[in-house]
Amino acid sequence: MEPFSGVTVRQAGADDAVGGVQPRWVALPETVEEVSAVLRDCAERDLAVVPAGGGTKLHWGLPPERCDVLLDMCCMNAVLEHAAGDLVVRAQAGVTMDALAGVLAEKGQELALDPPFAEHTTVGGTLATAAAGPRSFRYGTARDLLIGITVVLPDGTIARSGGKVVKNVAGYDLGKLFTGSQGTLGVIAEATFRLHPLPAESRWVVAPLPSGDALARVTASQAEPSAVEIDCPGGAEGADATVAVLVEGSAAEARALELREVLGDGTITAERPEWWGLILRDDVLLELRFPPARALEALAAAGEAGFAFRGSAATGRAYLEGSEEELAAVTGLRARVEALGGRLHVLAAPETGVDRWGQVSGLPLMRRVKERFDPGRRMSPGRFVGGI
Amino acid sequence: MLETLTAALRSLLPHDAVITDPVRLRTYECDGLTYHRATPGVVVLPDTAEQVARVVRVCNDFGVPFVARGSGTGLSGGALPREDGVLIVTSKMRRILEIDLANRRAVVEPGVTNLAITEAVRDRGHYYAPDPSSQQVCSIGGNVAENSGGAHCLKYGFTVNHVEACEIVTPDGDLVTLDRMDPGYDLLGAFIGSEGTLGIATKITVRLCRTPEAVTTVLAAFESIEQGGQAVSAIIGAGIVPAAIEMMDALAIEAAEAAVACAYPKGAGAVLIVELDGPSAEVERQFAQLEEICSDAFELRVAASAEERAAIWKGRKSAFAAVGRISPAYIVQDGVVPRTSLPGVLAAIDRLSEEHGIRVANVFHAGDGNLHPLVLFDDAEEGAGERAEVVSGAILDLCIENGGSITGEHGVGVDKSRYMPKMFSADDLDTMQLVRCAFDPRGLSNPGKVFPTPRLCGEVPGVRKGVHPLVESGKAEQF
Amino acid sequence: MDPELINDCVHCGFCLPTCPTYVLWGEEMDSPRGRIHLMKQHVEGTPITPEMAGHFDACLGCMACVTACPSGVRYDRLIEQTRVAVERRHEREPQERAVRGIVFALFPYPRRLRLLRPTMWLAERMAPFLAKAHPSLGAMAALAPRVEHRQRLPRLVRARGGRRAVVGMLTGCVQGEFFPQVNAATARVLALEGCDVVIPPGQGCCGALSVHSGRDDQARRLARRTVRTFERAGVDTVVVNAAGCGSSMKEYGELLGREPGFRVVDLSEYLAELGPAAKRHPLPVTVAYHDACHLAHAQGVRAQPRELLRGIPGLEVREIPESAICCGSAGTYNMFQPQAARDLGDRKAAAVATTGAELLVSANPGCTMQIAAATRRAGSEIRVAHVAEVLDASLRGVRLSERSERPNKHGSVLTGPTEEGQ
Fold this sequence. Notes:
heterotrimer; A: eight-stranded antiparallel beta sheet; 11 helices; globular; B: Uridine Diphospho-n-acetylenolpyruvylglucosamine Reductase, domain 3; five-stranded antiparallel beta sheet; 34% helix
């Protein structure tokens, strides 16, 4: 069957369900124009659309209110332009992060994001979920490295913002708006990023969890770590917690020694710890934000609520992994975290009616943005904060 | 109408916070771009966020537009007042509310100057990274509106990368906090750089950076711009990300010399200021590489002290205003090209300059391709101003042709809105308008800036109620 | 007001954060950029309104904006021209006129000031009553220093050791009458450093107060007399220890249309140039050095006084935050704009307090009076001294005289090793 003009479409199966909602079709566009054509047709026929990349985080968020078409971006997998001299790359949304890294490495460069599931996750998926990795302490998150974007709105309009130069303040930054929008405003079709040279060397200092004071001094050290990660697979009080500090650039070994001094213990290795930047279980997955100086308290609170903790002591952002049992503890944990000046929200969980997001000051404005971009509520409806 | 509005404002604010005296009002007629002027209807100088919100609500009650202004140093006319509106000046809101070094944060009011933040934390080993040339005077609220950069944004990024949260007054007068920690849309990212069209920042939480262990500032003098340009490419090619790479050509050097006696090497066709910072061991290695790369330079100076470093920067940071010493009038342009297109674009600017008999001094952030051509002319000479305008405009065309941008840091404001359709399609601009309409459906917040044609938002969901008179007369479009 | 000079301003705003009134009030009209805009409005035909005159009057004339300006705008000249225009064309309120009358009939004339001296002890007690009559009168009284015994300076103080130079010395009006010990110290320091110091008798005011207030006729008259006095004395260098006087005297050429036959230098500028010859004895004291506007901004003399102070063994110089911002004294400003002057004084006193220094040193008596008064308002005390007094103590190997807001009375002018017969 050919419901959309000239675009490859297949009938959806049970495997294509999004949060238990099975779409009728899966569209496989190959160009921005094809994305636009599909969305235009959907608009005319009032069909609801959920865009998908590598599918690694498709079960995150609430199930869509409805889903007629799954827009699978897998075929938009070209790296369009790598201007090495300008440290810029432009890629289609369906390129996987690993594939992109391979292309960039040929010229000694990288996109300094290290999102989870890098093997399968795509450029579009990384942007849409704003999933951050350990090195965001040094390089920022996806929104900080994105310099240009092409999106397709629910009515099929193709719009760009930004460009292919790093420094650019012309017009609104739609890239920021779409980063982390969870597919609810439109479809991210192409993206342009600023790049960094691959670091000359990398060293990790791996040590048992030190005191809060040592942690603070490592983070603020003039040896300039790129990441300070804590892994605590389970158990209260962080008894089995490990810290790993990454140093990149020239003289990494000497700087790592300096940092080990501060930690008072630890081994220095050129191999990343096996848990580095990973999400291991995401049936029940929470994102914890906290002021960096409260890292140990946040860790303890998460541990007492039964969650495994993995994330950055430097940026104050961690993933909490658990199972359905712990979900009941979310409200209590949130109260504790908010008292620390932090936030807690549920990224992924079976639908149990738990409040996933807590209080969000900007929600009324967010609703207005959603209304303007998607007045028909056809883009991933109901999946995001406040049921947007 | 303004009279009743003024009476309403007076009932809300302290007496001396409402300015209506015509002579006083006129001192607010322009910001750092003097080419565009308009005497504001009323000026208010609120002291608190709550007062800002009250003023905005009154503007809504009367359907009167409002414009926010910080220190009035913007170079695109972003704070150009409205004769029929209220100018909300944040220069009395300049308290540093909180410094939290443990979490590397400071919370400040919008009128605090950029440099004041660094000065407040410098002796405790921290600083605020974005450093526009006007940092001693420009306000952080203005920086947020313009998403200001500065010489060091090559490595450290812009305002948007260093702001963690903003309390804003929305265009309809609500106080809302946009925080990077909150889930949901990145409205903070959209707000920063929106040039006052999405509301007014009233409290800003900025990220503080740790002072680097080592800073090495190098001044390299080259015989020509080409040689300097090659050095820039070689630095980037070597995998070095300096904190800053700045370039000035002979004419700009002459001006800086006249203004601040910066004592750059004599006879230089171009000087390059390269600043390396970070851990000592890393900076040392990069400096060794840099020395090799700059072997073409006829003089290489390394700042040995903070004073020498400041002396090297002084020439660069005062370059814009300094041009006043060598030319009666000038236009400061701000455009961006991909770094690799720099040599070609500079050559093309040279040709334009010759063709029109207009001198152009070049100052630029070479590391990120951000050009600041200073188009010099004598306003006493018949037609010179027009010719300078032509050259200035043609430079922006060059930037667009080369895949760049019409503004790297000064903003679109009122000055460049007419170039927006050259850089963006109608669909792009309409999509940006969706954001505008979400925040400011009545179009009261700094109208006439950024976008070329006034557009009306219409109701949601898209039911049109007859034809608006502006649309009918062709002055506006509806979408 | 010269339109050419006005047009030099490119409206960049770099002057704003250095302007004391902008720092206080944050209003464009009370910033240099705003005042230049007002001047422009006037030049383009707007008459001087009371509002406009108020903003010009509120300018302290500290010239910090001149230092900050990258475009080289001559705000110093512009504001002087503007003040002349305001004086000529603007009708002030009667009460304001009366106060200005008193000040300008009094301060530039040492003899009249001398008559006032016996009443000074009363002034402090009278201040609250005077303030009720007019805030300016109260301010004038509150600032009044307790005065030391009048000290007659000899016409010539001979160099100690080998003679290295011959210089003239300005005694000034306020300095000479209210702070005679500073003049004495200046003469001793110069002599100890190998200068014959020529001090012509019958010197009057140099004209600075009048220049800074737009009274250009009076200014020219006083300037001419000062030039004549020193030309007759036959010196080619005149050393000045009061910053406000020095800056005005350096501009005599512009005021009078001809350069005087001598060079004007500030004491610290001159001593730094001359180089140290005399032995410095240790003075174990922490010093906060305050940049007087008319020294730092108007004359560009910043490094030299610090250098001289640092050259004293055991003395530690501490920098005052916001050092470029005026203390609010600014010549006659604290008399005409008492509230602003008071706010700025408080701000400066707080900044000085953060240094924790024991002694506040400046090259201008007005500044030290102002800051000491503010410090006292804040419920504390700080010792004050002129650069000359500190050097004097070190050169002579004596303790610094105990002078705070209430100076002790101490011996005659040239006690100690430099005393010279007349």
